[in-house]
Design a protein that fits this description.
The chain is an all-beta fold. It contains three helices and 30 strands.
């Protein structure tokens, strides 16, 4: 989900990759200050979309400079060359839509990776960045970083896009090293250009590098999650996160790695979820499968802070009363002084908003998979739980907290929480869901 304000109206865009038999959809809603409910403005589908494309799996709004406002939508299940000899299933793609003066989005282009391979799932994750286009290496232009966590090249380090012909080849099917690509708009020509090809500095098979991405407001800092990475000898498949800073090119200046081993690579381990604050000075890393005591898959979140001495570990957060399969940290949204943590399988039967003392005193009542969102505020002593958000009427398997968005625009300060639901007011194709505004 993404929020924005356009011509005095609050806007909300929501990706629904399961819609239309898995072809996917994106909906845009709006409301003014005087309205009590959201209005459906537009429903987008990808031209020529097919079953399993997963259009809407990821979504980011970005300024395109003189090109206006763009919306990039990930389509990781996109197939290249259907019914041809060089067919590449699930290679992935990213679709670009541009916002018009009529307040409607119009499809502009669909991009596939320059070294696309079968099963790469390019478009799984997105982050807004800036980078230098090859045709104008002295300028920084706005664009998007795209994760392809199942890309198979064993290349190591950061390359300009023109090196892909020599370093971007697949080593073996299903090696799943992972990669990140940057695509920018040249303001002089209006054309989009591939700028950088980013790989891990220590690639390992089944690392899924690029499974999660987080970008700063100015686009010069990028966090890349690799939840299957074997960064430390004592923690095979534990997962890691690289943070890159754009100087002359992207340089990795911190690596956070899990010390907890896994029996096999997972896409839900440490680094499967990352959120970088707008200033790029607060980094939250989700570890939703972490065990806490006897509570299996209770989940935890690691917070890093950037200061004068560089990146420092700041805090480890978990639910006040960790429970099995809560998966605290499955979704994240970080600001410099606020942090929202989704636990979409929380089973508390409490409804509405609870303060810290109410959460601590909770006892009794269970609704499996109801879900919750924990909100933390940073104080001089660290990160403190401020509130826990729940559905007004929790129901089983609603998975409240599966997505989180926040608006702090003047006059439009609110938190939006997405959920599944067996029946709901928003329905696209055969998929139904709902969201709540706080």
């Amino acid at each position: 989900m993404e929020t924005y304000v356009f011509r005095g109206e609050a806007k909300l865009t929501i990706g629904i990759p399961e819609a239309n038999g898995g072809a996917g959809a994106v909906v845009t809603l709006a409301r003014t200050k005087g309205e009590s409910s959201w209005r459906l403005v537009q429903t987008l589908t990808l031209p020529g979309a097919r079953y399993g494309d997963d259009f809407g799996r990821s979504l980011r709004l970005a300024s395109l400079g003189t090109g206006g406002t763009g919306m990039f939508v990930g389509v990781p299940g996109f197939d290249i060359g259907v019914n041809t000899a060089d067919q590449k299933m699930n290679a992935g793609a990213v679709a670009l839509y541009v916002l018009g003066n009529n307040d409607l989005w119009t499809w502009k282009a669909t991009f596939t990776a320059p070294n696309a391979g079968q099963g790469d799932e390019f478009g799984t994750s997105l982050a807004v960045v800036v980078d230098t286009p090859p045709s104008s290496p002295s300028t920084r232009e706005p664009g998007i970083a795209v994760g392809a966590p199942f890309e198979d090249s064993p290349a190591q380090g950061v390359f300009r896009a023109d090196a892909l012909a020599t370093v971007g080849g697949d080593a073996a099917a299903d090696a799943d090293y992972g990669a990140v690509y940057t695509l920018v708009r040249n303001s002089a020509t209006g054309a989009f250009e591939w700028a950088s090809y980013i790989k891990s500095d220590r690639p390992t098979e089944s690392a899924y590098f690029g499974y999660a991405l987080g970008g700063s407001y100015f686009g010069d800092r990028l966090a890349v999650g690799a939840p299957g990475a074997s960064r430390l000898p004592e923690a095979p498949y534990g997962g890691s996160v690289n943070v890159f800073h754009l100087g002359g090119q992207w340089v990795s200046n911190v690596v956070a790695a899990s010390t907890s081993p896994n029996a096999k690579p997972l896409t839900s381990s440490f680094g499967s979820v990352v959120s970088l604050s707008r200033t790029g000075q607060t980094l939250a890393i989700g570890e939703p499968e972490a065990d806490i005591g006897l509570a299996t898959s209770a989940g935890r979140v690691h917070v890093w802070a950037y200061g004068g001495s560089g990146w420092q570990y700041s805090a480890m957060l978990n639910a006040t009363q960790p429970t099995s399969r809560e998966r605290f940290g499955k979704t994240l949204l970080a600001l410099d002084d606020k942090l929202w943590v989704g636990a979409p399988e929380n089973n508390s039967a409490f409804a509405g908003v609870q303060r810290k003392d109410q959460v601590a005193a909770e006892a009794g009542g269970s609704v499996g998979g109801a879900g919750a969102v924990y909100q933390f505020w940073r104080s001089s002593s660290g990160w403190d739980l401020w509130a826990r958000l729940k559905s007004p009427s929790p129901i089983a398997n609603e998975n409240f907290g599966r997505s989180i968005a926040y608006s702090d625009a003047i006059g439009y300060t609110y938190t939006v929480v997405g959920a599944d639901a067996p029946s709901a007011p928003i329905s696209t194709g055969t998929t139904k869901g709902r969201f709540y505004t706080y």
